[in-house]
Design goal:
The complex is a heterodimer. Chain A is an all-alpha fold. Chain A is built from 14 helices and no strands.
Chain lengths: ~350, ~475
């Protein structure tokens, strides 16, 4: 069978499953564990097959090794930086008596020489043990991530949907009606969107939808009606950026030679726009998506705070204030891992969207 | 907060009394020997844990032993260092448990022997870390013994749900030994943003909110749901008495007398009560006539005397605070007042909380802000952290007479005598040596819906929901 066709089938399957999960999650249903695994395996399967069929195995392997090294360096740097900044986890307003502090530090191995602490940490890390929070007694960092990541992840995915569903079509429409009032209105909207910080959008949304019209809740995270305001607040700005990127990129592609050829062949405007222009215009959007995805998925702490969403944004910020070493390290590593992975996926998708980019060499 | 509803101590505060008198809780009665160095508690016999096990003196002893066990490494271990041999046991120097002054006499009697007399010892047992525990439950579940499905309690409420980072649900405990809680369920949300909580309160999703947005106090104060409660806590500035020119007593006095505290609390708008003495309003030993009063003329004269008649010769000094909007507003106010009233220039410096604490420990600035909240409603709590060898005294100041008074007062059983000693000690702090400049007694602001009756407000901030009622 045709390799491109298999790729397309597997990709569609993965995409379908993920869309199904997102929809279920948005409707307030709990996603069955089996579906989560199916999402994971189909997506992995897609990338594995794609990698294999494009002979990019060596490239992906290289990137994965690099990712491992990156994470190792980040873990080491974070560990070192935490020991350099003033103030320790057990410095409090009411200073603890030295003997009490000593026994607490002994409990967490903080009394050992630095190289030993580092060694213990790294060995545990390799075993997948992120340690226990200093602040939230008895709660392993991994458990805290498992508890708070889903809410952040949900918020991020929903906000991403807003970005793509609104951003890409707006950009496309604006470009195809270049220099008309449609273009102008869309771009004024987009520039306003870029200029507005999410917390301002959130405040306005709460004022209108929760207080004035009283149709949506102002806070908490208990179902579809609760999701709407935070996802719009978080998604508006990147959606505006994507609209502008798409527009610029579409305009550039429209004037390229192969589009002129397509026009000369007599293809319809619609056909040209969706089949030839759009796919190639998405490259800048894709580039922007790497950091965007990792940023949105790990949570926007401002939006999480404003809507009292039980995500990991709080821990990302407060762990630093508390000098909660294991939690800071856990959060940093998770964030880095998602960023590295998102960038790898984006790079793989480059070559899918634009065959001129060949990663196998 | 939650634990105060799930558990009980041997004794408790009568939260309705003005002086927070002690009343029986798990203990029916208690008595000490003549010099208050040995305390015997007779316990109730009708108390059952939520799993049906009868409460005994061993559980009370276990709670204290676990607190000082080096394996627990509890922050509050020092809280009971007054108990005989508790300190060496907690540091691991002493291994023999039997030498620690905690003795179970029989199932319902526990005797505690102290290192030295301490007249306020029973008050310590109102504090959550000293509460009885069930070691069998802790051993069985390890670190997860506090989860809703594992925890075993004996207070007016049970822990129904603890959804970490999200919400807590308390359910009335039907087997509670006292009069049952009046509201069957209490739901608490964990909300980090005060504005968000206020939104939810306004939309009817919350019946009460404890922490209000500081910049909205002026408006919220006008509403009928607004309530405030002075608490046993103070906000103060410390002087680094070794750093010139703060080593000059007249300079410290001049600064203390040039600041209008009324203006500060008016600006903050939280109902704080200006404080010139050292212990907060509402605590034994509080005297509104104590301390230095605002007197700009005399303040200027003192600064002249200190050798700074020419104000341009006065070195620039730094006032530090930890990063926080309210602290910033307050610091700017003090800066402006000192400029206006004394003609001196103060530089402001803010640091992130832990960095700030580190600075205070290593190199305290000329003037620094700090607060102190009472663990127990006793003046000792506010005095002993300024002893010359205290880790919480960042002023580099020490006074032998002050140390002697404070250390001795803790053992004195005659309350009149104690009061006199604390008065003298306070005068050393705020009238004679001035290592510190008190600003105000703290006040807790809250919004409580009209339909909520008996919302538990009290000076020691113990949120006990037992008597809370919802009316329609």
């Amino acid at each position: 069978m045709n390799r491109a066709l298999i790729t397309r089938i597997v990709g569609s399957l993965a995409l379908g499953l993920i869309v199904l999960s997102v929809l279920m999650s948005f409707m307030g249903y709990e996603i069955p564990t089996a579906l989560v695994w199916a999402d994971l395996f189909s997506a992995l399967g897609f990338f594995a097959y794609y990698t294999y069929s494009q002979r990019m195995g060596a490239y992906v392997l290289k990137r994965l090794v690099e990712a491992g090294v990156t994470l190792f360096v980040i873990a080491t740097l974070t560990f070192a930086l935490l020991r350099v900044i003033p103030g320790g986890p057990f410095d409090e307003e009411k200073a603890l008596p030295p003997e009490v502090k000593a026994s607490i530090e002994a409990k967490y191995n903080l009394d050992k020489p630095l190289y030993l602490q580092y060694g213990i940490y790294m060995v545990n890390l390799l075993k997948g043990d992120l340690g226990e929070s200093y602040k939230y007694l008895g709660r392993p960092v991994s458990q805290m991530i498992v508890e708070t990541l889903p809410a952040s992840f949900q918020l991020g995915v929903f906000a991403l949907l807003i970005c793509y569903i609104i951003g890409i079509p707006s950009g496309l429409i604006a470009a195809s009606r270049h220099n008309t009032w449609v273009d102008n209105v869309t771009m004024v909207g987009a520039i306003s969107g870029v200029a507005l910080p999410s917390f301002v959008v959130a405040a306005v949304l709460i004022l209108l939808f929760s207080f004035h019209w009283q149709i949506l809740p102002a806070a908490l995270w208990d179902g579809p009606t609760y999701y709407l305001l935070p996802m719009i607040a978080l998604g508006t700005r990147p959606a505006a950026v994507i609209a502008r990127l798409t527009r610029a990129s579409v305009l550039e592609v429209i004037h390229s030679d192969y589009i002129r050829t397509a026009k000369a062949k007599g293809l319809s405007q619609k056909n040209i726009l969706f089949k030839h222009v759009l796919k190639n215009s998405l490259i800048p959007v894709l580039t922007f998506s790497g950091p965007l995805i990792s940023g949105l998925l790990t949570g926007s702490f401002i939006i999480e705070f404003m809507f009292a969403i039980p995500g990991m944004g709080k821990h990302l910020i407060q762990s630093v204030t508390n000098r909660d070493y294991p939690l800071i390290l856990g959060m940093t590593l998770l964030y880095s891992a998602i960023l590295v992975l998102a960038n790898l996926i984006v790079d793989l998708l480059y070559s899918y969207f634009d065959p001129r980019i060949n990663l196998s060499k | 907060m939650v634990l105060n509803n799930l558990m009980e101590g041997l004794v408790a505060y009568d939260l309705t009394s003005e002086n927070l008198d002690l009343v029986p809780a798990l203990a029916l009665s208690w008595e000490s020997n003549e010099n208050a160095s040995e305390w015997t508690f007779k316990l109730r016999k009708d108390v059952k844990w939520s799993d049906g096990v009868a409460f005994t003196a061993q559980h009370a002893a276990d709670g204290l032993f676990r607190l000082i066990d080096p394996k627990t490494a509890a922050k509050y271990a020092y809280f009971v260092y007054g108990i005989k041999n508790a300190k060496p046991f907690s540091t691991g120097e002493l291994k023999d448990v039997s030498q620690v002054g905690i003795n179970v006499i029989d199932d319902y009697t526990i005797k505690i022997t102290l290192e030295k007399p301490m007249s306020f010892f029973p008050q310590l047992l109102t504090h959550v870390p000293t509460f009885p525990v069930r070691l069998d439950v802790i051993e069985k579940y390890g670190d997860t013994w506090t989860e809703a499905k594992n925890i075993v309690t004996l207070g007016p409420y049970k822990l129904k749900v603890w959804d970490h980072d999200k919400a807590i649900v308390l359910e009335q405990n039907k087997t509670y030994f006292g009069s049952p809680a009046k509201t069957p369920f209490i739901l608490g949300y964990i909300i980090n943003e005060t504005t968000t909580a206020r939104n939810m309160f306004d939309l009817g999703r919350l019946d009460a909110q404890m922490d209000l947005p500081a910049n909205e106090l002026g408006i919220l104060r006008e509403r009928k749901e607004f309530d405030e409660q002075p608490i046993l806590g103070i906000f103060y500035f410390g002087f680094n008495t070794k750093k010139p020119p703060m080593d000059n007593l007249n300079v410290r006095k001049a600064i203390s007398m040039a600041i209008d505290k009324n203006e500060i609390v008016k600006m903050l708008g939280g109902g704080q009560i200006p404080l010139n003495g050292w212990v907060p309003k509402g605590m034994m030993g509080y005297d509104e006539n104590m301390g230095l009063k605002l007197n700009v003329e005399q303040a200027n004269a003192l600064l002249d005397q200190a050798g700074y008649k020419d104000r341009s010769k006065f070195p620039r000094i730094t006032l530090s605070f930890n990063t926080n909007d309210n602290h910033k507003r307050l610091a700017e106010n003090v800066q402006a007042q000192l400029k206006k009233n004394l003609g001196i220039q103060v530089d402001l410096k803010n640091e992130e909380w832990k960095v700030y604490l580190d600075s205070l420990r290593t190199d305290p600035p000329h003037i620094f802000r700090l607060g102190w909240l009472a663990d127990i409603p006793d003046p000792d709590n506010f005095m002993n952290f300024l002893l010359s060898d205290s880790d919480n005294n960042h002023t580099n100041w020490g006074n032998q007479r002050f140390d002697k008074l404070v250390i001795e007062a803790a053992s004195v059983t005659d309350q009149e005598k104690r009061l006199e000693m604390y008065e003298e000690a306070q005068r050393i702090l705020v009238e004679k040596d001035i290592p510190v400049m008190p600003i105000y007694t703290m006040v807790e602001n809250m919004m409580v819906h009209q339909r909520v009756k008996n919302f538990p407000t009290n000076a020691i901030s113990q949120l006990k929901f037992k008597n809370l009622e919802i009316t329609n």
